[in-house]
Design a protein that fits this description.
Belongs to the calycin superfamily. Fatty-acid binding protein (FABP) family. The chain is mostly beta strands. It has one helix spanning 3-6; strands at residues 10-16, 19-25, 30-35, 41-44, 50-60, 63-70, 73-82, 85-93. The chain is built from one helix and eight strands, in the order H-E-E-E-E-E-E-E-E.
Length: 100
């Protein structure tokens, strides 16, 4: 197992007026994104993929939702505070087309 996959990053979330920032810091890598709620933007993921963050981040049922789109794929991340801890869940959707 790769040591980087075992690292638990520190997550720093800040807001300056309408600009939000999420910064994940670990021993191996730092990844930071800045965004406005409900606005699409381009992002380079920690593993180097260039993705379109559709609808950017938005709030739903008390959760901060992030949707990434690339190469016909969609990944949704849900962040929520529960019992004083931040929980992050990932939902991946793949769309298959029937060959003619």
């Amino acid at each position: 197992m790769v040591a980087a996959s075992l690292a638990k990053p520190n997550l720093i979330v800040t807001q300056d007026e309408e600009i939000n920032s999420v910064k994940a810091e670990s021993t191996f890598k730092t990844h930071k994104i800045k965004f406005k709620l409900n606005e699409e933007f381009d992002e380079k993921t920690p593993d180097g993929r260039k993705v379109k963050v559709g609808n950017s981040f938005f709030l739903r049922d008390g959760k901060l939702i992030q949707e990434r789109r690339w190469d016909g794929k969609i990944t949704t991340m849900e962040r929520e505070i529960k019992n004083g801890k931040l929980e992050v869940g990932n939902v991946a959707t793949r769309i298959y087309e029937k060959e003619a």
